[in-house]
Design brief:
With 214 residues, the protein is an alpha+beta fold. The protein has a domain of 148 residues: TATA-Binding Protein (2-Layer Sandwich), CATH 3.30.310. Helices cover 58% and strands 21% of the residues. It has a six-stranded antiparallel β-sheet. The longest helix is centred in the C-terminal third of the chain and has 95 residues. 17% of the residues are buried.
Length: 214
Amino acid sequence: MRNQFLTIFLFLSFTALQAQVQEGKAAMSQGSQSALFVKLENIQAKDVENQWVKYARSFDGKTDKVKRTDEYMTDDATIKDMSDNTVDIYALAKQEGPDVVFFLWFDLGGAFLDARLHGKSIGEGRRILEDFARTVRVDQMESLIKDQEGAVKKMEKELADFEKDQKDAEKAIADLEKKVKEAVKNQEAKRAEIKAGQDKLTELQQALKKVEKN
């Protein structure tokens, strides 16, 4: 039941993904800087981090964890629609209860991406975060689908076992019914033999009496 609710929730939140991306100042290893962030529901920060490291490979930069922090930094990332120069991307997955708030900071070289200062580039930053969040959602849905497929296969196997049990029981009943019929038939035949034997015995006894009288 919980998985059903989670599936419905993820489907509804997936359609409203763009509205969830926000911008604001957020503390990070380079001070308080302008960031883009989004809330990802029902997920662990470690899973988001692992997915981001994979996703960041598309920027042709090197991604490592920033020492003594929970941040990941992609050095010299190539984002042509954001800057002609390489960009340093800082990422942070912050656990908040069952959810994660995921932050991205884009260091353009001397300044962090800010809607007020970089109106033409902010859209690409939003697109990247939206696309990553969508990737996370898809992974969650695929995981739920895989779990559900496993559950269905398990139920199908249980059904097959029940069907086999029924067939085995029906065969056992048929065998018993056959044995009962054979037993009834054998009893009837044996009763007929006994009657014939008793009749013969009566004849012999009567013949003995006649002999004794003579």
